[in-house]
Every structure is written in C-alpha cells, then in structure tokens.
Design goal:
Length: 209
C-alpha cells in the first residue's frame, strides 16, 4: 500500500493525504463527469440560494442542510471508488456526496461534516475519505475558535485566519481523516485565483457513520 503524507494537528488529530491514489485521474475525471449532477440549492438565513456547484449524493441521506437533496441509487463509478476504499482501508462507507466545481469561483465555505440519521439514531461521521479529480484546488483548514463572520471565502481571505493551513489537492489524490479532526477543524474549498485555477474540479467524499 502506498504511504500517505501525514499532517498532524495535535494528539491523535491528523489527516492522511495520498497525492497519487488514483493511477489514471484523467480517466477518473471522464467517468465522474457522467455522474448525475444537478443544481444545488442551499438555505441561508431562511432564503434558498442556488450555488455555483452541482451535486449528487448516494447511499444514506445526508441532512447537512434543510434543502439537501435526497440520495439517488449508486452509479457505477461512485460505487467502484467506494468498494476500493472499503477494501483498502477496512471501512464501510455508507454515504457519498459528490461536488462539481465548475471554475475558480465555485466554492464551499468553512464547515465540519455533520451527523446524519442512521435508522432512528443521529450519528457523527467516523471516517471521511475525499477523492479529487480535474484541476488542482486548495483546501483551507481553520481551527475551531476564530470568528469567521465577515471573512472573505477566498483562499487569501481564509489564510489570514489565525492558525489556518492550506492543502493542495491534485487530481487523483485522496484525503482521509476521522471525526477527531472533523470536530475541531473546519475545511473549505474557497474561491481561488483565476490564473491559478482553470477548469473544473470534481470531488467524491465518502463517509462512514
């Protein structure tokens, strides 16, 4: 098994980054573009907003937002990646959320992954595994504590938050972390610089609850 880059954020709090997890990221991107992406509406301050990302979810419903879309039946490529992750890491990834970032302006703000209902029980995500395809984008990590109100959701804006760190996510990379990290750090794919990002990124993010 390939060895990860291990990024440590405290005792037993770490991220494992596999920069070249997929052998053929170009083929992966071609397959991922066939997934059933559709417009994403996010409710903020009681108002629906269509964001500059398209999404599709598989497996368990993921109730991250009041307007979250229902999951659809597993499609072949998303299921293939799930089965490979399950086998390699001994996991049972029950849910997958896919995001299509159309360009450098498409983003997702700082957040932690939410619990979801499994039967009648609301459970925290135990493991989170995210595969990146397409153009390289930067993920900015911000620690719990600083008030992010009014901070621009851009790479440069979030990097000014005390303690913030940045990770580059090349095509074909895998980011793997547990709820120990998720509880105390937020992660974001912010708006990036036009000259630095040219094209589309797709992420497939799997969770075990």
């Amino acid at each position: 098994m390939m060895q990860p880059e291990i990024l440590r954020f405290g005792e037993k709090i770490e991220i494992h980054l596999y920069p070249h997890w997929l052998e053929d990221p170009d083929r992966g991107m071609t397959e991922a573009e066939r997934l059933s992406f559709s417009a994403e509406t996010v409710t903020m301050y009681g108002k629906p907003n269509v964001v500059r990302r398209r999404t599709v979810d598989y497996g368990l419903p993921y109730s991250y937002n009041p307007s979250a879309k229902p999951s659809v039946d597993w499609e072949p490529y998303a299921l293939d990646i799930k089965q490979r992750l399950d086998k390699q890491f001994g996991l049972n990834l029950q849910q997958c959320a896919c995001n299509e970032y159309l360009d450098h302006l498409a983003y997702i703000g700082p957040h932690r992954d939410h619990p979801t209902l499994v039967g009648t029980e609301r459970r925290e995500p135990l493991y989170i595994a995210s595969v990146s395809l397409g153009v390289m984008r930067r993920m900015v990590l911000t620690p719990r504590g600083p008030n992010l109100k009014g901070v621009p959701i851009t790479v440069n804006g979030l990097m000014r938050v005390p303690g913030a760190q940045v990770i580059e996510l090349p095509p074909g990379s895998l980011l793997l972390f547990t709820n120990a990290f998720n509880q105390v750090w937020k992660h974001a794919i912010p708006v990036d610089e036009k000259g630095r990002v040219s094209g589309k990124r797709i992420s497939l993010t799997y969770r075990q609850f």
